[in-house]
Amino acid sequence: MGVEKYDIKELEFDRSNSEQYELSILLGMGSFTYIVREKRSLRLLVYRSLSLQVSNIGEWNQRMQKVVQEDEVLRPSLIKNVQVGWITHRATLVPGRLYQEGRAAEYLGQLTTIGLQDRCFNTALPAMGAQLVYAVGQDRVDGVTRRFAPVSSQHYAKGLLQNWQEQNRGVGHRAIYAGIRDGQMVLAGIDAGKVIFFNVFAFSTAQDALYYVSLAFQQCGWGLDRVPLYLCGEIVVQSEVYRQLYRFVEDIRFIGADLSKGIPGVLLSQLPPHLYHDLICQF
Question: pTM for the full model?
Answer without folding.
Answer: 0.94
